[in-house]
Amino acid sequence: MSEKERNLPLLEVRGLKQYFEIDGKHTVKAVDDVSFTVEKGTTFGLVGESGSGKSTIGRSIIRLYNPTAGEIFLDGKEVSGRMTADKKRYLTTKMQMIFQDPMTSLNPRKKVIDIVAEGLDANHLYKTKKEREEMVYDMLERVGLNHEQANRYPHMFSGGQRQRIGIARAMIMKPELIIADECISALDVSIQAQVVNIMKDLQKEEGLTYVFIAHDLAMVKYISDYIGVIHLGHFVEMGKKEEIFNHPVHPYTRSLLSAIPDPNPLTEPTRKSATYDKNAEGVDYTKGKKNFLTETHMVLATEEELARWNA
Amino acid sequence: MEDLKEKEVVLDVKNVSISFKTNVGMLNAIRGVNFTLHKGETVAIVGESGSGKSVTVKAVMGIKSSNEKINSGEILYTYEENGEKTTVDLLSFSRKDIQEKYNGKHIAMVFQDPMTALNPLLTIGYQLTEGMMKHLKMDKKAAWARGEELLAEVGIPNPQLTMKSYPHQLSGGMRQRVVIAIAISCNPDILICDEPTTALDVTIQAKILELIQDMQKKRNISVIYITHDLGVVAKVADYVAVMYAGKIVERGTAYEVYFEPRHPYTWGLLLAMPDLNTTEERLYAIPGTPPNLLKKIVGDAFAPRNAFALNIDFEEEPPVFQVSESHEVSSWLEHPNAPRVEMPDALKRRIARMTGAANQKGGAANE
After folding, report:
1. B203 contacts on A by Cβ (under 8 Å)
2. Does residue A117 sit in the same domain as residue A213?
């Protein structure tokens, strides 16, 4: 792969809006005019508190919702707007999702082999039953399960193993992009590390691209190359992870960073976390402009705010 | 460290062992747990799900399920009433007795999920005053006034209105504040916090922890935390007990467990969680999964997952080795005849960085 190819954005999202109409009068603007790009082979971390719209972005991209507006390009091909059968097939094979709760995202009445092979079945990607079986076994082995486990049901697995089944199901389609929505939040610490390692290995082997949605900032920092901080449906800050973690500008980012508990009993007990109150700060996200501090580091702010925060 | 002996012991858990009768056999949830809680201090019990940490504190609260069997042990609770010191064994009471006399009044609990901990059909005010009217024999009016004070104390902006609200009208963080207000309403000696921040958002987590710390200092309450988040533990705990498969494998002051850990499981736990400075290519993952407690465990329960396991680990259960006055480790590696095993390098580096960062705050510790 040449250097130039590598830097082509795999995913490009332009002006994505996702509104939900509650009734005739009220609309929830879950995602409001969001744009970002993700380069091939990198991981884009989406962080924010609950209700900030981070999961909605992921779900809109993969068309679990119908976006209100905006354009999405995957590998240069449009995957937004009206979906033709062709477009849909392109989207579902190239893009896969790993869900938060490994129990509710696996059908309890299906065997693991059928869960993992579902994508293959739908797209007729095998010729014989034997081939299908082999593809599943191969995938299971790569995520650290053995093929004897293929004929079991989801409830017979532990949380970490179930999440691996979820990863296998996504990976078997040989996707380019995986949207991982809080995929390790429900797991135990020691199991989280196992799953994260598998995800990193697969990324290296296959040149996968991840959109990693999480609220655990330490984990996001560990796994991501780029980070977008989202609050109330707006990207308030975006950039390389070093830029976000070493030079946060937006007060919301700062408050998020200060909320991370540091496992250090010498400094942690006396540390106080910062508070961010949008109204007290007098911030209106719709008035803010996108200010690029560096080529990659973006902050949503008016000029006056930017000057104040930088001071 | 101040002298340990001068501290007042509030709760002494001795060799508690509890099993559950299930239709596939006896499940030995906790197998001999020991720890002590001193007045005004905090003990954090850390462990994976299924390690028995919740069962341990539920035993303290007298919350027993019908298939639960206590095999051995005692939980000694010492309290002062009318100037007299009394010590009772909490395991000897029936559930009804413990509810009448101790729960809420002496020992209170903050649960993980504030939505399910509150009754959706009753107002906040009703749920908050209920305990005070029963335990402190307050009349309704006085309890209501006290309730408003408590809500203000836990940082709820409009106490009068909130007293009349129902749980669904509040956000998750506010609900957890209400739960804390209920827990401290009868001035308990011991507050048990079972994963108090797991269900909450990161931004609110820190605030809730700070609130609990604040309440603890003001009222000199002893707190038991149950959590799997080592960041939370570092923030609040004086003492840390690491639990694995129903036993405490290592316990000591927070400093000892974080910076001088001896048990390989503790090493694994510390390394599995990346902190903001983790740059290692791969996270250290403890291989395998926790043991099935339905089966009888021979030797050290952690041995199959332990890269440093000795032969004896598969045969005999390790005794408790006293590393220092407050630091205990249950691992054969501490035996004088055991080969010397050093903690992983990645952990050493991290500890050096953390202690370094604390010593020279702001100093350029670029490594």
Report:
1. 49, 255-256, 259, 273, 276
2. yes
Task: List phi, psi (to 5°) of B54.
Answer: -70, -40
Please give the residue of chain A at the shortest CA–CA distance from B360.
A267
User: Which domain CATH number covers A99?
Assistant: 3.40.50.300
Q: Which amino acid is at B1?
A: M
> Both A206 and A262 in a single domain?
no
Give the span between the Cα atoms of B352 and B347, in whole angstroms.
8
Strand order in the sheet with A226-231: A95-98, A177-181, A209-213, A43-47, A226-231, A234-240, A298-301, A289-292
CB-nearest partner of A263 from B206, B258, B286:
B258
User: Which two structure tokens, joined as six digits, stand for B7?
Assistant: 């501290």
Chain A CB contacts of B356 under 8 Å are none
Domain that holds residue A91: 3-232
Edge-to-edge, what's the strand order for the sheet holding B84-89?
A: B25-38, B9-22, B68-81, B84-89
Q: Report the relative pairing of strands A177-181 and A95-98 from DSSP bridges.
A: parallel
Query: In angstroms, what CA-CA distances link B167 with A13, A200, B126, B147, B212?
Result: 39, 41, 11, 15, 20
Q: Is residue A37 domain-shared with residue A135, that is, in the same domain?
A: yes
DSSP strands (E only) in chain A: 9-21, 27-39, 43-47, 69-74, 77-78, 95-98, 177-181, 209-213, 226-231, 234-240, 289-292, 298-301
Residue A239 located in a structural domain: no
How open is the CA angle A55-A183-A224, to the nearest 5 degrees? 80
pLDDT grade, residue A7 (50/70/90)? low
> What's the number of domains chain A is made of?
2
Under 8 Å between Cβ of A212 and A46: yes
**CA angle centred on B66, ends B62 and B68, rounded to 5°:** 70
Q: Are A64 and A92 in contact (CB under 8 A)?
A: no
pLDDT, tens digit, 9 for 90 and up, residues B311-360: 999 999 999 999 999 999 999 998 888 888 888 888 888 888 888 866 65
Same structural domain, A68 and A161: yes
Full-prediction pTM beyond 0.90?
no
Nearest to A49 among B203, B228, B236 (CB): B203
Q: Among all residues of chain B, which has the CA nearest to that of A214?
A: B202
- Closest CA–CA distance from residue A212 to any residue of chain B (Å): 16
Where residue B164 falls among pLDDT bands split at 50, 70, 90?
very high
pLDDT for A120 beyond 80:
yes
Domain ranges of chain B: 1-94+227-360
**Amino acid identity for residue A229 in this structure:** V
DSSP secondary structure letters along B70-94? EEEEEEEEEEEETTEEEEEEGGGS-
Question: Are residue A154 and residue A299 in the same domain, yes or no?
Answer: no
Same structural domain, A78 and A227 = yes
Rounded to 10 degrees, the C-alpha dihedral A154/B48/B199/B212 comes to: 170
| Structural domain contains residue A242 | no
Q: Are residues A60 and A197 in the same domain?
A: yes
Q: Are residues A203 and A266 in the same domain?
A: no
Complex ipTM value: 0.76
CATH number for the domain whose boundaries are B1-94+227-360 = 3.40.50.300
pLDDT digits (tens, 9 = 90+) for A71-99: 999 988 888 888 888 998 899 899 999 99
